[in-house]
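Standup notes
- DV: blocked on the single-chain target, sequence here:
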Amino acid sequence: MAEPTAVAPWLHLSLPATVQALGPLQALVLAQAQALGFGHAVQQRMRAACDEALATILRLSHDASADADNVLQAHLGVEDGALLLRLSDNGLPYDMSLLPSYNPRRPEQAGEDAAGLAAFLMQKLADRCLVLNQGQQGHHVELHWRLPDGVADQPAAAHGTATPQTPAPTGPEPTIRPLQAPDAIHLARLMYRSYGYSYVNPDMYIAERILARVDDGRLTSWVAAVPGEAAPVGHIAFMKGHRDDDTLEVGAAVVAPQQRGGGLLGALLSTATEALRQRPERAAFVHAVTAHPFTQKTFGRLGYLPTALLLAYTPASLRFRSIGARPTGERGSVYYACKLLRPAAPQPVYLPEALQPLVLPRAHDIGLPLQPQPLPATPLQGSTDLQVQAEPALNAAFLTLRHAGADLAPVLRRTLRQLCRAHIDVVYLSLDLGQRATGAACTEALGLGFIAAGLTPFMPWPATLCLQYLNNQTLEEARVCAVGPAAEELRSAVFTAYRAQEYL
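- DV (later): unblocked, structure below
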């Protein structure tokens, strides 16, 4: 009995995402196919499949911007009884629905549906074809060919290897409407064009997850569409962590580069502002980035005022493409800018005197009446109820103190130690200023190295104090853009506390 043909190790090849990649890709596949004993006819199918797969990928994922990641990774090896070619890229999000359908019963239309024909052939030339969109992990096109008889079905171990000025748009005026199901994949592509894969909410890159958020009430989304074009050119949304939250975030506001400078962002914001009048929530907020002034200025004109400065909130990888904001290598900070949607009743609060200059003016700015009360001298009682929520996309943790008990200090210390050992970059702690125990709880947290961020109303309580703990994060105050006196005062106070912790 003849020995089975040995399976070669996995092969990896990095290629430019251009048509020039076809030759090396075909050579790689055919050399392996020949070594594994594939017949001439199958090898010709493989050659043609590589051609059609590359053409399809380039059509769907190509991004012409200057900072695009136009690299194609080819992985070739044996898996589950087949030769597997996996082509991976980090270009624009896509699915096959973006291509025109090809009808093999009407071959006379092949010239009109060339893109659809390429995709059709790619799937027919392999025994199995898969197209996988994995969001921030990129996209994968997989082609499988069953191994010839006599080849061992054992995979081998792997072996390594100046800001441009945007002209005013011309053409038809975009119209703004609610997001529809076919818009979802185009929205994912639009997010990519604005942020690359650095946007903090990974769900916005996957059409199915966008639609799931719309269906369960966590996302209310509008797009700007040009008549006659399938892909939207702008977007804005209301977002909620949970359907029943009493506040909502206004965000995911993006405008296609070719539409910038024509007032489309203002029109999207006007649509969202008008829709707020019908919302049941108590407050709306934005996370206004500090890498540039545009978000602060835009939302400031609409009545969103800064009440907290969240240091190191966004990963260092966050990019703003085509607007001139350059990466600094450090995590980015954001202002929590809030707007009450209806008048709030006076709120008795138990706020340490040292934090009152930071918190009370910002509450007054937005019309939230806080009434400081004397801090009780009674000790903490009962067991601590501390909720912990990790956000992998941010590499941050959010703690919510539901009840401060007698064991608060060890509970908080143990939780903080665990998060630091897990290399979480920043920890945010929310406290209810309406609870009598908050003053003592705040003292305990500050003693562990937390510093005040400010007020985050209705997240989840009307008067919510946010503290923050930075795990070995180095920040420079000069890189935090502050627009207006309130933002400047917050920046000064928070960085004074940050520098004081640096010297402890």
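- Follow-up: Residues 354-369+377-502 form a domain with the Aminopeptidase fold (CATH 3.40.630.30).
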